[in-house]
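Continuing the series of single-chain predictions for the mutant panel. This is the parent chain; the variants come on the following pages.
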Amino acid sequence: MIGNRIAFRASAQNSVGQAVGRPRKRACHRGQNLVELVLTLPFVVIMLFFIIELGRAWMAYEGAKMAARDGAYTASIYHNASTGQTQLDNKLAAAGLTVKTAKVSQVPNQHAYQADVTVTFSPFFGSVTIPTLSGPISILPAQFDISYQSITDVAVY
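Parent structure:
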């Protein structure tokens, strides 16, 4: 080793007489991977948590949607809003959602039924704030509502 450089002997020379082979390596790059990991890991972790929260919110939306559709469909099949309401409540309970409102009713002057569902979603990392010079910034609210409305028309009497 010569100084901070790793030296090697080249076995071949080009036409000018310079050594041909591997370039010399510097030993000053040690720890570079660790520094890059420390700089990028927080962003990767934040993206991972965001993807998880987005998946949970989508699951809550899909649960509310499927319960509303099933409740309206059941009411339209049996021509009875209370049967649809029972089905709606059972589906929401099976999905494990926090229900704010859930109602199945007949559309006025029509042979159609509608189901209105609103569920409350609470993110794992809700109400987390980032301190800044201009004041704290909230990334996600502590909770928010997800609503869905389904209308099913009865074609066969």
